[in-house]
């Protein structure tokens, strides 16, 4: 018989951002539990509001299927003593299975006899299995937890009620002092408690009590209400998906409405107005058909249309107070110059162990200039970059950013333009924060991109030097995100930018300019390279490239970000070539034999007079040839050059014994192979590539 089960956990209001992940977690954990318990079903439907997490399972079977299984025990010599009687091991083994030694049979397993018993497991009724879902609820995890009363149990918010109904039957379960029943609660103000007769009645019963339990239906209703308001007034309303999700998880019975604010506030930059409405009040902003911001907003109340005028007036009052503050800060900030703000940064700490924000800007000027020259910015761009790097953090000490931290960079651009700075400088100030998320927008200008990379690289280097390295999920200074931003920008711009030489040059020039941080950056250069290479790996994994090819590319001794990325794509493009396997095997053989030389870094001298066959001479000449312009090659050209050596390498090993007794000859041959191996290693760690 097909059955329906309802589980609802009633709570005090949850933060909006945890509602959807929490109900998804409940559904996923329930599905895993039912699979483990061998209970089949048709569907798990999710319901969620700020005050409840619920699942409705349809198509449930009556019981677990019976199971007949054969259990392997100890070897015969263990379960029987020297007299042929059952040992304690035999008694313990069978007792653990609910059987006796008389049930044992012996079977041969690879020449040894083992004890086996056949076991019949009666399937449990579904009621018994479902009662175990209380442990599933207890196992849920949340970003923050609460205790209440005298309980030690922690949850996202205090649990107020539990509904657990299998059709019309209450399934007993208990979490802390709350027992399951059939009573749920409607809207806090518009509804009342309701006793459910059957699990199938859930959604309709709550609708009657002014609760739309289906989050998707609630969200769709909000969207339609906003669209109706927009159509009525001939407005354009951007229904931001993240804001809609948040608003949806704040209400149980949504009613959308429009409000207004004084149009004199429109002189404030639109970014400030939108941030005030969207981020602080959770309002949707309004535009005309040409995209001009209008002095209106749309919001959603958790209730019906009764006394809606009072609600609108209250929201307008709150928004006006916030916009008054913004208007004040906007005018007040313009009373000081950019230089005034830059000087204030001398007293603002970037981090107590590292430096002030002012000193950070001095370091970033050094790094930005090095990067700008490396990637080929022209003289005008370098001038814009220098000016941007001199002032780009100034807005941190403005009143507006103090009130609206989300506007860092945005207000820097606005105030820079008002102060007469070049628009390219102003744009770079805003763009240096980009990207602000894993797949966020990248800087569109070269100057902004260089400044962003320089700022992020300084942060990673100095925090590493201060010993504040991300550990596990702990990354309080978002260094992983900043490193990933570096990788994305450099890859997008296709810049060749060797990290090791860049960082060493930056440290040297910071010392020369007397702008070093309080911490020593020299010891962490290799650690930062490894850290950034891990971000390269993550980016490449999202591009459907084989893991061994990624490991080979990132394992290169070259610290150039884009070259590593380009190498992975090159290997991926050529992996199905006819001679790919043979070429990689030849290169790998060179690398492995060269390791026996244990030479120090640097180009090794090879004496052609010690060659004993033509294959040595041919290989040496070809290695010399490709070495001449190796630094100028892109990854695909490097691959072509190295794999073109396959015939010469094969001839070499066919005709030449490397590890001969003559030490001078052996050393000369190992030197020749090491010079080639170092070129190969600069391309990729070819021994990571799976070619079998």
Automatic annotation (TrEMBL):
GO cellular component, one term: cytosol
Pfam families named in the record: DALR_1 (PF05746), tRNA_synt_2f (PF02092)
Residue ranges of domain DALR anticodon binding in the record: 586-673
Reactions catalysed, as given in the entry: tRNA(Gly) + glycine + ATP = glycyl-tRNA(Gly) + AMP + diphosphate
InterPro entries: DALR_anticod-bd (IPR008909), Gly-tRNA-synth_bsu (IPR015944), Gly-tRNA-synth_heterodimer (IPR006194)
Subcellular locations according to the entry: Cytoplasm
Enzyme Commission designation: 6.1.1.14
GO terms for MF: arginine-tRNA ligase activity; ATP binding; glycine-tRNA ligase activity
Assigned keywords, A-Z: Aminoacyl-tRNA synthetase, ATP-binding, Cytoplasm, Ligase, Nucleotide-binding, Protein biosynthesis
Quaternary assembly: Tetramer of two alpha and two beta subunits.
Family: Belongs to the class-II aminoacyl-tRNA synthetase family.
Protein's recorded name: Glycine--tRNA ligase beta subunit
Source organism of this protein record: Fructilactobacillus fructivorans
